[in-house]
């Protein structure tokens, strides 16, 4: 297993620790580079800026995306390590040397982490002996190497200690912290928004609209009805189409065709724009077929929500 130790500031960490967020956006301000150090399920650890050379927590890598700060705030809120969008942007502007006039919605690099854990100060882990003060972003370790394996075991030991009095990690299972194992990260509400936005190429599945501020990630089967935070249970829709979909005035059939209910005209006396899409197929879909809207979720929406 690979692990990445990323450098962050104390305020960011304390905000998240206090809030006990169950997913995290570990963001960077440049908005230009990619992050290829980890695969899904690998461990990402938090190291404070020097002189606090300690590892203080971590999580499991889910996805990397470059998105506007407004979407990051909409998706993760305080899990960005900031108390409001203005505070998040002020931090971005500080690092990028820009401002709200020149860069009103700055792009940021988002390393999305699931199932985070936070160590009490007594359990902070000193950085490995090969850590250099010259490291600016972070460093990758591998459990196939002695230093990496030692770090992995220390992290497990600290998690065990804290689980005696706190339920701060994942649900327990047999051999949870025994042999090294790959974790499948849980997808939370914030990650769902970003995953759907990226899967649909930041365009409305029905209209092709690509003005990002008016696009929303929609569950086909709502999470409150035991619908999962999964790409095949989601659609990216323009805000008005999202509202109509959730209220049953629009649905998608198993052939991925749009159906528009006669109730729009009956209830509101209009709807010409929406009826123009009746019978048309979705024009934007994910690249991967396993991420297409699942027929079972579509059927559930057809039968339980649609006002046909």
Describe what is shown at a glance:
This protein is an alpha+beta fold and 308 residues long.
Question: How does this structure look, described?
Answer:
Strands 1, 2, 3, 4, 5, 6 and 7 form a seven-stranded mixed sheet that branches. Strands 8-9 form a two-stranded antiparallel sheet. 28% of the residues lie in helices and 22% in strands. A hairpin with a 5-residue loop joins strand 3 and strand 4. About 5% of the residues have low confidence. It is built from nine helices and eleven strands. The chain starts with a strand and ends with a helix. With 308 residues, it is of the alpha+beta class.
Query: What is the number of domains?
Result: 2
In round numbers, the mean pLDDT is: 91
CATH architecture of the largest domain: Roll
Helical amount among residues, as a percent range? 25-40%
> Which structural class should the secondary elements be placed in?
alpha+beta
The CA-CA distance between the termini, in Å, is 51 Å
Q: Could you tell me the strand content as a percent range?
A: 15-25%
What is the CATH topology descriptor of the largest domain? Archaeosine Trna-guanine Transglycosylase, Chain: A, domain 4
Tell me the name of the CATH homologous superfamily of the largest domain: Hypothetical protein
Gyration radius, to the nearest Å?
A: 22 Å
Overall 3D form: elongated
Question: What are the main properties of this structure?
Answer:
308 residues, alpha+beta, Archaeosine Trna-guanine Transglycosylase, Chain: A, domain 4, seven-stranded mixed sheet, two-stranded antiparallel sheet, 9 helices, elongated
